[in-house]
């Protein structure tokens, strides 16, 4: 009998990654309540050790051998670095500054309220063992879980608003400003959590070198053609990712910073959209699968699901409460706060990246990561079904008033 080579088992894994979620999404017609990206994340969980590995351990060990997982992780790392880099480029800090009062109030309440409720939920979880990683301090776990409840996934938010046909409308642009400002806070808090006093010298050196390198790369980008900017940007991305990881801040922090210091106007918007869609189509499913391979249920499935439910309540309730308060302060039109609150609830991808970093640094356990993953998937699946009817009612009210 022919013995399977590493290449063949890798391709079997790739076949599963791309075929199973797509068939479920297309044949099940799940797009309204579970877009393909959500199905891919859920598919990663189902193909992981907690489900497929438990049901068919021999088959799982054969297909997802350590060598295959290592290969998949390499693809996933690079793909998600590019995706986060694009998210950094798409931040429009100038627009946020022009509307700084409204943006500051809304983004602040949208971040702080779920952060507080999520941190309280983390305190409840920490009353029992199994949630704190071997290298994690209680304050890091509490702040990390709280921030995970406050995250908005900017790239997925863009996809959802395109689907709902509001991305280019004034409401969509406002929501992008709120989410963009919160994105900056997310990575800032992550840097605080990851601050390693044993490596603080490296981190100071990284920040100083990054400031000088940013000045140089911005001067260079202004002087070269757009075709060269794309290639130079990928070199810049790899260098920043390496330097941040060497300093102990994690390569994702470097990836985000490398994009945030570049101007979106240096790149053709249509080409950037196509590039993001290509990465999402061809590479990100591998990241979702490798994420699913990390899910564990060792503290007991009921405990993990219970924690996920608690975090979901804190996340959804906190976001809607914060946006509701902002709507009253700023005197928004009826229905706006609910729509904005549910759209900013979109968590998948960025929250998964955030939680992956905490897991990589052994601040949280696999069980905590699994609870956060389930919360992110559930909150993201709620977004379109909750927003679509509200948009229709709002459009109807506007139509009757005119």
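^ structure tokens above, recovered residues below v
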């Amino acid at each position: 009998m022919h013995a399977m080579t590493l290449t063949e088992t890798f391709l079997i894994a790739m076949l599963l990654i791309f075929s199973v979620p797509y068939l479920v999404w297309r044949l099940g017609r799940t797009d309204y309540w579970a877009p393909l990206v959500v199905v891919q994340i859920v598919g990663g969980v189902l193909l992981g050790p907690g489900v497929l590995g438990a049901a068919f351990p021999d088959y799982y060990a054969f297909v997802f051998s350590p060598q295959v997982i290592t290969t998949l992780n390499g693809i996933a790392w690079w793909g998600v670095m590019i995706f986060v880099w694009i998210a950094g480029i798409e931040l429009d800090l100038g627009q946020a500054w022009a509307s700084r009062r409204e943006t500051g109030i809304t983004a602040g309440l949208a971040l702080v309220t779920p952060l507080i409720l999520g941190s309280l939920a983390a305190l409840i979880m920490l009353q029992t063992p199994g949630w704190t990683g071997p290298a994690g301090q209680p304050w890091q776990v509490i702040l990390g879980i709280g921030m995970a409840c406050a995250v908005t996934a900017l790239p997925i938010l863009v996809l959802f608003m395109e689907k709902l046909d509001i991305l280019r409308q004034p409401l969509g642009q406002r929501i992008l400003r709120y989410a963009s400002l919160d994105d900056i806070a997310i990575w800032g808090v992550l840097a605080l959590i990851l601050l390693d006093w044993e490596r603080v010298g490296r981190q100071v050196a990284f920040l100083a070198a990054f400031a000088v390198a940013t000045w140089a790369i911005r001067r260079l980008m202004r002087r070269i053609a757009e075709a060269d900017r794309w290639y130079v940007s990928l070199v810049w991305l790899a260098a920043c990712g390496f330097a941040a990881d060497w300093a102990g801040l994690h390569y994702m922090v470097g990836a985000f910073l490398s994009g945030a210091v570049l101007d979106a106007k240096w790149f053709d918007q249509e080409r950037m959209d196509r590039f993001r869609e290509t990465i999402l189509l061809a590479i990100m499913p591998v990241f979702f699968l490798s994420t699913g391979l990390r899910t564990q249920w060792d503290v007991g499935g009921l405990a993990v699901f219970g924690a996920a439910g608690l975090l979901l309540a804190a996340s959804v309730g906190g976001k809607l409460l914060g946006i509701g308060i902002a709507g009253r302060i700023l005197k928004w039109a009826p229905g706006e706060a609910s729509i904005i609150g549910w759209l900013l609830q979109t968590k998948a991808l960025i929250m998964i990246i955030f939680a992956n970093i905490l897991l990589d640094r052994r601040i949280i356990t696999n069980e905590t990561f699994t609870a956060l993953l389930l919360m992110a998937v559930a909150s993201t699946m709620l977004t379109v079904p909750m927003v679509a009817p509200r948009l229709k009612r709002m459009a109807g009210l506007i139509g009757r008033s005119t």
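The mean pLDDT is 86.
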